[in-house]
Automatic annotation (TrEMBL):
<protein>
    <recommendedName>
        <fullName>GGDEF domain-containing protein</fullName>
    </recommendedName>
</protein>
<dbReference type="Pfam" id="PF01590">
    <property type="entry name" value="GAF"/>
</dbReference>
<dbReference type="InterPro" id="IPR000160">
    <property type="entry name" value="GGDEF_dom"/>
</dbReference>
<dbReference type="GO" id="GO:0071111">
    <property type="term" value="F:cyclic-guanylate-specific phosphodiesterase activity"/>
</dbReference>
<dbReference type="InterPro" id="IPR043128">
    <property type="entry name" value="Rev_trsase/Diguanyl_cyclase"/>
</dbReference>
<dbReference type="InterPro" id="IPR003018">
    <property type="entry name" value="GAF"/>
</dbReference>
<dbReference type="InterPro" id="IPR029016">
    <property type="entry name" value="GAF-like_dom_sf"/>
</dbReference>
<dbReference type="InterPro" id="IPR050706">
    <property type="entry name" value="Cyclic-di-GMP_PDE-like"/>
</dbReference>
<feature type="domain" description="GGDEF">
    <location>
        <begin position="383"/>
        <end position="509"/>
    </location>
</feature>
<dbReference type="InterPro" id="IPR029787">
    <property type="entry name" value="Nucleotide_cyclase"/>
</dbReference>
<dbReference type="Pfam" id="PF00990">
    <property type="entry name" value="GGDEF"/>
</dbReference>
Length: 509
């Protein structure tokens, strides 16, 4: 037996508390009327009451006539496997409900939003009828309702949603491949796609630092008319949102239907959600190698939303795709950096191998490269080219008499004196071994080479004697011939220097 309410609660208060959009229409009895125009006219003259949820869902203007706005709501049919029917081609389901005792529609779009519409006539007499219409967002799950034939529609719609989501996942998988460029743009495109598909107001990605003490909003998509907050949500410290950090680190999920209902243990989070006008929020962790790197989140701003298990499963799938893309991109960047550093290290090692550590002069391999370059240039431009080799007389005996530091100082001094005699463009002095040096002389014939080699011998002769033994050099010079390469030049110059030493040293051959 139905009992009246014992508390003083008005019907309006009850309607406003419902999470379902409710429209109550008191209108003329239209059971015998088939003309759509007459029905619409009756609706426009009817007494209409709506709750707050209906005002929001239908975007009604409280300052304008409600009956006219409801009559003009933009409905269309989302056929399961056929084309969409435009609003201009169908009768408004609300107008149609005015002459039916009961309706149940789960194939409708209000604008672009999938909705379920039900209606029932609460009173019916010869003159006036009260029709109660309810609207709610159509969830992406199987609908079992009263075992009516309309369950076929619901099942087919759910299959269509499943197919569409699979297509979306396939598309995102392709777009989030790590080898593609512009990952940030592709992540934001993915956020837009999943945000529109799940009909949320805001979707976003946050990334944690290595120690999970800070997080930043790196990517964001917002629906039309929704405020962006990405610029404000940078480098957020753990102590500012301790409850949220703890939830993400411990369970990897934050799921709230009503953020205002958070207790004092999450007062910082409650204040932040209020600041951003977030009524409902769903966040799931993103992991790489089982380590939390960030999270993907959905916000509802215009209304509250009770998140379904399908919502959670779908956001996890997309979160995994984005996490994989970010992790792969980081690995590629790290690999590229390592390769760059390795190339730089190898280049530096090659330079070290081509440079004498004591004198800083090029070594024999680098000299050969330069000789071949000069030979090619001399061949093209038809100019002379000579090579001089200088060998320290009695070098091994001198090295044995000296300490390591004394020997190093002597070699550096000799290198400096030789170098002071060769400062022209293209002239390259190199250290061949412990006791020998060589220099290539572009644009120089054998006579010029001899003259300049003798100058070097005079410079070295001024060095202090070591244990009454003078410091002298023997020099071998050679002029390039067109049939000679770098090896030929070096061998002949070294042979000439050796012959000069055998003839007593301190001379040029």
């Amino acid at each position: 037996m139905k009992q009246p309410l014992t508390t003083q609660v008005s019907t309006t208060q009850i309607m406003d508390a419902l999470p379902v959009a409710t429209i109550c229409i008191c209108h003329d009895n239209l059971s015998e009327i088939s003309d759509v125009g007459q029905k619409k006219g009756a609706l426009q003259k009817a007494e209409v009451t709506v709750n707050e949820t209906a005002m929001t869902l239908c975007q009604l203007d409280p300052l304008s006539e409600l009956p006219a706005q409801i009559a003009d709501l933009n409905f269309s049919i989302e056929e399961p496997l056929q084309h969409q029917v435009a609003a201009s081609d169908m009768v408004s389901p609300i107008i149609a409900a005015l002459s039916e005792s009961q309706t149940d529609r789960r194939d409708l779009l209000l604008g672009h939003v999938p909705v379920q519409l039900s209606s029932v006539q609460l009173s019916n007499n010869a003159d006036k009828v009260v029709t109660l219409v309810t609207l709610q967002l159509r969830d992406h799950r199987l609908f079992i309702y009263r075992n009516t034939q309309l369950d076929t529609y619901s099942t087919e719609l759910s299959i269509k949603e499943l197919i569409n989501f699979e297509k979306l996942v396939s598309q995102l998988t392709s777009e989030l491949q790590p080898e593609q460029e512009d990952l940030d743009d592709r992540i934001e495109s993915a956020l837009a796609a999943i945000g529109e598909f799940t009909q949320v107001d805001r979707s976003y990605v946050f990334l944690f630092d290595f120690d999970h003490t800070h997080m930043s909003n790196t990517h964001e998509w917002v629906n039309h008319g929704i405020t962006s907050h990405i610029d404000e949500l940078q480098d957020i410290q753990q102590e500012h949102l301790p409850w949220f950090f703890e939830q993400m680190l411990s369970v990897g999920k934050v799921e709230l239907t009503d953020t205002a209902a958070l207790g004092d243990e999450a007062k910082h989070e409650r204040d932040e959600f209020l600041k951003e006008d977030i009524q409902s929020i769903l966040c799931v962790g993103m992991y790489a190698n089982k380590r939390l790197i960030g999270f993907l989140g959905f916000d509802m701003v215009a209304r509250q939303r009770r998140w379904s298990q399908i919502d959670v499963r779908r956001i996890r799938i997309v979160a995994d795709l984005i996490a994989t893309a970010i992790h792969s991109s980081r690995l590629q960047q790290s690999l590229a950096l390592s390769q760059k550093q390795l190339l730089a290290t190898n280049s530096a090692l090659r330079e070290l191998a081509l440079q004498d550590g004591l004198t800083g002069l090029p070594t024999l391999p680098k000299l050969k490269l330069r000789i071949n370059e000069e030979i090619a240039r001399a061949r093209r431009q038809s100019y002379g080219l000579s090579l001089c080799v200088f060998t320290l007389d009695h070098g091994q005996k001198t090295q044995q008499r000296l300490s390591e530091s004394q020997w190093n100082n002597l070699i550096q001094d000799i290198a400096a004196r030789i170098g002071s005699c060769f400062r022209r463009h293209g002239e390259v002095l190199a250290r061949l071994d412990d006791c020998s040096f060589a220099i290539i002389l572009p644009h120089a014939d054998i006579d010029i080479a001899r003259e300049r080699a003798l100058k070097v011998l005079g410079q070295v002769a001024t060095l202090h004697c070591i244990q009454s033994n003078p410091i002298t050099l023997s020099s071998g010079i050679v002029q390039w011939q067109t049939d000679m390469d770098a090896e030929d030049l070096l061998m002949q110059a070294q042979n000439n220097a050796c012959e000069a030493h055998l003839q007593g040293g301190d001379q040029v051959l």
